[in-house]
UniProtKB/TrEMBL annotation:
The lineage of its organism: Eukaryota, Metazoa, Ecdysozoa, Arthropoda, Hexapoda. It is found in: Golgi apparatus membrane. Pathway: Protein modification; protein glycosylation. The chain crosses the membrane at residues 12-29. It comes from Phyllotreta striolata (Striped flea beetle). It is a single-pass type II membrane protein. PROSITE patterns: RICIN_B_LECTIN. This is Polypeptide N-acetylgalactosaminyltransferase. Gene3D superfamilies: 2.80.10.50, Spore Coat Polysaccharide Biosynthesis Protein SpsA, Chain A (3.90.550.10). Its main location: Golgi. GO terms for biological process: protein O-linked glycosylation. It catalyses: L-seryl-[protein] + UDP-N-acetyl-alpha-D-galactosamine = a 3-O-[N-acetyl-alpha-D-galactosaminyl]-L-seryl-[protein] + UDP + H(+); L-threonyl-[protein] + UDP-N-acetyl-alpha-D-galactosamine = a 3-O-[N-acetyl-alpha-D-galactosaminyl]-L-threonyl-[protein] + UDP + H(+).
Amino acid sequence: MRRNLKTLLKYILLSSVTVVFTVLTYRIFKSKDFTRDRNSLGLARSIGIEPLAPREVILVDNEKIDWHDYEQIEKELKRLGRGEHGKPEFLSEQEKHDYDSLYKVNGFNAALSDKIAIDRSVPDIRHKGCRAKKYLKNLPTVSVIVPFHNEHWTTLLRTAVSVVKRSPPHLLKEVILVDDFSSKAFSKKPLDDYLAANLTKVRAIHLPERSGLIRARLAGARAATADVLVFLDSHTEANVNWLPPLLEPIAQDYKTCVCPFIDVIQYETFEYRAQDEGARGAFDWEFFYKRLPLLPEDLKHPTEPFKSPVMAGGLFAISAKFFWELGGYDEGLDIWGGEQYELSFKIWQCGGQMYDAPCSRVGHIYRKFAPFPNPGKGDFVGRNYKRVAEVWMDEYAQYLYMRRPQYKNLDPGDLTQQRAIRDQLHCKPFKWFMENVAFDLPLKYPPVEPGDFGFGEIRNLGAPELCVDSLFRERDQAVAVAPCLSDAGRKGKGEQNFTLSWHKDLRVKGKSLCFDVSDPNDKADVTLYPCHGSKGNQYWKYDVEKQWFLHGGNPRCLDCDPGQKRLYVRACDESSKTQKWRFENVNLTMIADWESVGIK
Ligand SMILES: *[C@@H]1O[C@H](CO)[C@@H](O)[C@H](O)[C@H]1NC(C)=O
Ligand SMILES: *[C@@H]1O[C@H](CO)[C@@H](O)[C@H](O)[C@H]1NC(C)=O
Ligand SMILES: *[C@@H]1O[C@H](CO)[C@@H](O)[C@H](O)[C@H]1NC(C)=O
Ligand SMILES: [Mn+2]
């Protein structure tokens, strides 16, 4: 009896929970207020129930619409003037009086910027498929955060105007320009007045002391009131319909960070053009930012967001909720450097995900040179890197320290709070990140550099007195054969020491010049070209048995004309003696393992 009563009570409790939830979820999906949606959904999930809404309501919620602002697009197409449509522009001689002085403080052609309209048009260089793409009708609201220190007036305003003009008004809640203690006069009151009079959605906050990029971003994030934070650099231009592709993946799962494609605004001419059609962000073991190729499945869907291991750093969207769950940036990171790794590792290791959205494009001025003096704070970048490595990278930190032994003696400061975040969020180990997200990184950037497949002299068997010789030539010049330097009585000038590196390229010993063949014809020259990592033109393999040097994917054999002392490649021929070469030192173990070393 008692048992039955208990069961009955349980039943009543459960059904009332169900009723409450049905009502709640119905309201959630009907509601237009995204913040409430998300919080309630989060609540539902946090107590272990996946809310199921009535069928038709789900359909409403998944409704997708065309977000293009065709009126605006039409208007921009008709614009005439300097630098319009992102065309390259030039100053006349008379206009060049402050060219040098403005270049020096900005690192780009700021005098030209002043001649180009603040609301200029940019070309729609998105993949054609983006024009037909629809996105969820219900998208979260956005605060755009733009930290700046002494940014040039017109490039700063162009950033803000491009955002305001090319964002759906009801999604864009505000643009916050975070003035990191700029010393240019217009950065204070004139800026505030301009914004109040002309750009009501844009406001500036002025930091009372120099705080650095990372803390300036945090200050902006703290002031932001919308659902999603979008961080931009202060010399950027948002392209057509840039916002919905950034927001949809976040609307679908708030633990998501999305980066736009970053286009190039050329520092001299302000030409707007593509950098490329996308790559996955990565790093090498000195923490230089690198890129990995798209995966085959990414290439099949050129307009769909693809997963990226690390962000480039300056331009990204993330829900405020997730950003703060992750503790924002580590405030112990000083000025700049390492913050993109910190946030990226955190996002992936702590249950989130990161995408690049090909249909969202933002132009960025890559400066010609950095105009700012060194802040004189010692190796602050090294300290930042060490903080990131110590908190997030586990045993992989050693690969960084192997290359930068001086980091061992750097004091990274107090890491207690960062480690507590990692514990509290039950974040995964770095090994998980390396094996599941950046799984192809070690092929291109091995934690421990493999040795060479071989090195030394390369002697011809058809003409055994001749060796491959670069003759100290430079880029774009042909490699030849010459009398072997190691033979007695044949001393002379020459450069006959080469390495077949683990990159599967043939290098002049001690230089980063590689043997390159671009000519598909018979007897194609072998020329020297800066090494670019064994792809295509620079791929070489040594066949120990046949004593062939094979070039390229559709292999041809290294060969020579002993009379003319010419070196070239041609179709492999088992009977040719001049195609056989003796390579002075070969690591047979490594050659036997050819496929598993470096890039395949
Ligand atoms: C508003 O913009 C116009 C046109 O760019 C400019 O002339 C004016 O000075 C601006 N207003 C303020 C208060 O700065
Ligand atoms: C080529 O370089 C290697 C290592 O740097 C050196 O040991 C070797 O003696 C050199 N060989 C010749 C032929 O100079
Ligand atoms: C050959 O390569 C293997 C694997 O990288 C390495 O362990 C070994 O020391 C190398 N041998 C020589 C003689 O360099
Ligand atoms: Mn920048």
